[in-house]
User: Which sequence fits this backbone?
């Protein structure tokens, strides 16, 4: 039985969040609140992914995975910790959906006869135009 789409699976219990102080503008508020949020997701320990999906994620996202095998996604866009947490979750689902989507292989094709004739005619006209610019 195939697994349901990524957005219908329940990943939430497997998320671990960590907050820290955010950088950037915000004055005193930024110096005293922890609005930056990091989402940690352990790919190996996930019950929502099958072995093939785990392998694919580890291969394609190896730069985003730490030594413990956790995928890390961070957000510090807003001053609100809750909105940054929501943004992390949104980024997670977009990233997983993108990585797990299997792209169709491109079938090599040749240009049609009409397309080749059109290209050659355009080249000939361009050449004539440049020849007319030369001094006699």
Assistant:
């Amino acid at each position: 039985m195939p697994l349901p789409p990524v957005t219908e699976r329940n990943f939430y219990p497997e998320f671990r969040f960590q907050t820290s102080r955010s950088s950037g503008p915000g004055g005193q508020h930024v110096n005293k609140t922890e609005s930056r949020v990091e989402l940690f997701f352990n790919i190996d320990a996930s019950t929502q992914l099958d072995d093939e999906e785990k392998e694919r994620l580890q291969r394609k996202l190896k730069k985003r995975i730490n030594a413990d095998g956790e995928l890390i996604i961070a957000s510090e866009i807003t001053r609100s910790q809750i909105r940054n947490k929501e943004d992390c979750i949104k980024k997670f689902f977009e990233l997983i959906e993108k990585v797990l989507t299997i792209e169709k292989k491109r079938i090599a094709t040749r240009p049609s006869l009409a397309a080749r004739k059109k290209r050659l005619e355009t080249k000939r006209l361009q050449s004539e135009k440049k020849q007319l610019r030369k001094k006699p």
In short: The chain is about 40% helix and 15% strand. The mean pLDDT is 87. Strands lie at 15-20, 36-42, 70-75. The two ends are 77 Å apart (CA to CA).
